[in-house]
Structure formats: structure tokens, C-alpha cells
Amino acid sequence: MNFSDAAQSIAEQLRTEMARPIRLSRQQVVNVSASIGLTSCPADGADVNTLLKNADTAMYKAKTDGRNRCVWFSDELNELTLQRHQLGKAIQEGFERGEFRVEYQPIFELQSYSLTGVEALLRWTTQDGEDVAPRDFMPVAEQTGMICKLDAFVLDSACVQIAEWHRRGAGCRVAINVSALRLQQPGIVDEVAAVIARHKVPSSRIEFEVSESAALLGVSNIIEKLEAFTAMGVGVSIDDFGTAFSSLNYLKNLPVNCLKVDHSFVCAIKTKEDELSPDARMIRAIVALGKSLDITVIAEGVETQLQLQFLHQLGCDEAQGFLFGKPAAADTIEPALVELVAGKIGASASRPTTIRKLVNG
Ligand code: C2E
Ligand code: MG
Ligand code: MG
After folding, report:
1. Nearest alpha carbon, ligand 1 atom 15
2. CA dihedral angle for residue 184, residue 187, residue 193, residue 198, rounded to 10 degrees
3. Which ligand is nearest to the CA of 321?
């Protein structure tokens, strides 16, 4: 056996041993897992510092790949880590330079097409004029912890906007995404209460979107935190529902107003035949679950009339997507909100198109 095979074998044995459940008492079993990074000397480096740094990089990769695994250091991995490091720095500096802003996308009730709210979505345009998509910067912002500052910025911006819209007759509920890391912060409930009080906005105008995985995993005292938000009058939605390991038990225990069907299910419906596809069945099941638990179901990523009709027939409560309008700047969307809040556009089959023109021009 050569050196790397031997190292791999030892690492695997360690990982397997660590993954065995530990019984603390009759009722309590603890599961731990090991994420192991491996590097070799002299191929990857000749001094202790370099080798430790390499092993750390590989261990980090093992964690982001899902934990409970062994990963070898490589030059590509090093390159990727460097890029991530640079992106992390760019996010921090971009934030300090004020390159981030919030856009809003409307959400509609499907029986009457009346506006039920908007979702606040973070946008980043760098000083070079490049738009960076949340899917590209969010994972790094989560790794560096910057996500907490970004989420706080979005809450603050949304509160300013809620107050402004309220004054101008465009008052509606604003859904705000909250990351698991931010929820994890011990002072989060008091901080949110302070921001709401500072801006003097009705807390019922705010709804927090928590991703399914955040609601399920990791966040300590999640039930207490969500209950504290609910007690303040802030709503709670489970975002990207159906994409993580759904446990129905947590739905029973969490104070949840809405389930947001992930747009990957909706976008799979391209033709009439797809209405019998596994994705369509998932949507049907989520809508039935929402009905049975008395939780509003919102479908995300609705782009076509066919998808809308399918959701309508199922009895899905609400929808958001490019069919109704893309996320837009607050001042761009404001005239549309004023008209929609006042109910000036009558219900008709062509309404989504009318709404889209109003929202995006
Ligand atoms: P999300 O919360 O599920 O947001 C919905 C995403 O779907 C948004 O992408 C929105 O622009 C996109 N979308 C809406 N309608 C359509 C459609 O018809 N077709 C398609 N293809 N896409 C549609 P976006 O803005 O790129 O955000 C991606 C994700 O990044 C969000 O998913 C959310 O998880 C995260 N995110 C965005 N803003 C924030 C934030 O302020 N804080 C946190 N923690 N996460 C955020
Ligand atoms: Mg969301
Ligand atoms: Mg979502």
C-alpha cells in the first residue's frame, strides 16, 4: 500500500468510528460526524504551516460537500479557495461602498389576482457595473458570515420602504429572506424588534422567509425564535419547500404561515403532459398539505400561463414569478403597487399580463 492509500484508509476508519451513534442515556443518542482534510508531503508542501493550511482547505471542502467525508487537497481546490477568498473580500468592500440594494417582486392571490405582498431580494452591482447573482455570492457570504450584515441591511431597507409605501398608499406585506446564520445569532429577536420600533412600521407588514434546511437543522432554539417573531406580529414562511429533507413533524411544531413551493418544481411543468410528472405530483402534495394544515401555499417561479392554470386548478393559494413581474427597484414598482393595493385592476384572465406591464413597464 502506498502512502496516500494508507492515509486514506486511516482517515476512512476514523470517519467511520466517529460516525457511530453515541448513546448518552436510554433516551438520548448523539450523532457526530467527522469532516477530514488530507494533504501530502512533499507533493503539496514541505513546511508545517503550508500543510496545515492545505489540510484545512480540504477539510472545509469536506464540510461544504455535506460533511462526514474525507477530501484530499489539490491545486484546483486551492484555486477555488483563493477565488472564494477574493469574492468574500469583494463582498465586504462592495458592501462598505454601498453597492448592494434591494429589489421587490410582487406576490398574488390566485383566485382574485389581488396583491398579497412583495418579496425583498438582494441585488449587487459592483463598481465595474457587473451584476452578481445571489446564487453566486450568497454561499460565500454565508461562509464568511457577511450574510448577517446583508440580511440586517435588507431588513433595514425594507422597513424604510414599508414606511414610505405606507405614506404613499402602496402599503403591503414585505417578505424578507433570513439566513440560518442570522437566525442563529443570539440577539436576533431583540434586534428585529428594535429595527421595527425604530422605523415605526406595523410588524404585520413583515414576513420572514426561512429556508427549509434552516428550519430543520442547526439553528438552536428555532421554535422559540420563530414563536417570538410570531408574537411580535411578524409572519414566518418556509422557503424552497420540498428541496431539503422535509420532516412533517417540524411543520406541526413550527409557527408557520406559508409554504413556498420551490421554483424547481414549477419550472418542470412545460407541457400539459408534465402535469402528471413527479414534480407536478410534488406540487399537488404540497398544496394538499397546506390545505390540511391551514397554511398558505405560494408557488415560486411561475413563468407561463400553463403553469398558472395548473396551480389555479390545484387550488394553490398564491404565486410569484416572471409571469406577473420580475423583481424591480422600489420606485419602479411603486406606481404598480399603488394601483394594485387600491384594487384598480379588475380580475380577468389577462390580468397577469396587465400586471406584468404595470410592474416592469
Ligand atoms: P428565493 O428566496 O427562493 O427567491 C426567489 C428567487 O427566484 C429570486 O432569485 C427571484 O428573482 C427568482 N424568481 C422569481 N420569479 C422567477 C421566475 O419566474 N423564474 C425564475 N427563473 N426565477 C424567478 P434571486 O433574487 O436570484 O435570489 C436567489 C436566492 O438568493 C433567493 O431565493 C434567496 O434564497 C437568496 N436571497 C436573495 N436575497 C436574499 C436576502 O436578502 N437574504 C438572504 N438570506 N437570501 C437572499
Ligand atoms: Mg425567498
Ligand atoms: Mg424560494
Report:
1. 321
2. -120
3. 1
Question: Tens digit of pLDDT for each residue in 38-87?
Answer: 999 999 999 999 999 999 999 989 988 888 999 999 999 999 889 999 99
Check pocket membership of 180 for ligand 1, CB cut-off 6 A. no
**pTM score, two decimals?**
0.88
**Hey, what domains does the chain have and what are their CATH numbers?**
3-73 (3.30.70.270), 88-360 (3.20.20.450)
Please, are residues 116 and 173 in contact by the beta-carbon 8 Å criterion?
A: yes
- Atom of ligand 1 at shortest range from CA of 178: 44
Cβ atoms < 10 Å from Cβ of 188: 19
Q: Are 97 and 153 in contact (CB under 8 A)?
A: no
Give the Cα separation of 51 and 73 in Å (integer). Answer: 9
179 close to ligand 1 (CB < 6 Angstrom): yes
pLDDT tens for residues 81-125? 899 999 999 999 999 999 999 999 999 999 888 899 999 999 999
Is residue 131 within 6 Å of ligand 1 at its C-beta? no
Alpha-carbon distance 355 to 114, whole Å? Answer: 10
Q: Rounded to the nearest whole angstrom, what is the distance from the C-alpha of residue 353 to the centroid of ligand 2?
A: 23
Return phi, psi of residue 340, to 5°: -70, -40
The three cell numbers of residue 220 are 438552536
Burial environment of residue 254 by CB neighbours within 10 A (0 to 12, 13 to 18, 19 or more): middle
For residue 91, give the nearest of 60, 123, 68, 57 by alpha carbon. Answer: 123
CA distance 46 to 94: 37
